[in-house]
Design a protein that fits this description.
The protein is of the alpha+beta class and 198 residues long. It has four helices and nine strands; from the N terminus they run E-E-H-E-E-E-H-E-H-E-E-E-H.
């Protein structure tokens, strides 16, 4: 895989050395975003996290880097090389959210995904409550497929989750309401043509 560049950012295949700077990331305060915090501090924990992400043969992870600091990462998960499809994940350091980094790198990465890698479609799952992420994905042409409940293990006291919209406790398990979204290559091509991109 090649390294992509836009403005002062590089999107590079994830290496073990990239994740050391992630120990200095900011923290989400919203109980529903705590799962995106990066809690690891020990070398053994960092090694295990890196292996978990990059180990599976059908996963590819990419670091978003500026001046030797990792500001986020992209994940292509469960890649199906026969049908040219996979699942997308995107995480940005909370300290750098709201600066347009996700929009810039995602658009460049999708161009690479569809045109250089010749993939046919890409899927993702996003929380109904995560309106910021939904807006980002819709701006790149993703469309909602369906809404469903996804089980999760809360990282906070359950009292903080009671009466929150888009959450429920179902047979003793916490679930979050999510959208499944998809972007077809043809829809992405239409989008960039409408924007006058070459």
């Amino acid at each position: 895989m090649i390294t992509l560049y836009i403005d002062n950012y590089a999107i590079a295949p994830m290496e073990r050395e990239h994740i050391d700077s992630m120990m200095n990331w900011g923290k989400h305060d919203d109980p529903m975003m705590l799962c995106y915090n990066f809690p690891y501090r020990q070398k053994e924990e960092l090694d295990a996290w890196f292996k978990m992400k990059t180990g599976p043969w059908n996963n590819r992870y990419f670091s978003i880097i500026r001046e030797d600091q990792t500001l986020g990462y992209l994940g292509l998960k469960k890649i199906d090389f026969r049908y040219r499809v996979c699942e997308l994940g995107l995480v940005i350091n909370p300290d750098f959210m709201g600066y347009g980094i996700g929009s810039k790198v995602l658009h460049l990465f999708l161009r690479h995904y569809f045109f250089d890698l010749n993939m046919s479609k890409i899927k993702l799952t996003v929380a109904v409550a995560n309106e910021r992420a939904q807006a980002l994905y819709k701006n790149e042409g993703f469309r909602q497929l369906k809404k469903r409940w996804v089980s999760f293990e809360p990282d906070v006291e359950e009292s903080l989750l009671v009466d929150r919209p888009h959450l429920r406790k179902w047979f003793g398990k916490w679930q979050e309401e999510c959208y499944d979204m998809i972007l077809l290559r043809s829809h992405f091509v239409e989008l960039i043509r409408a924007r006058g991109e070459s």
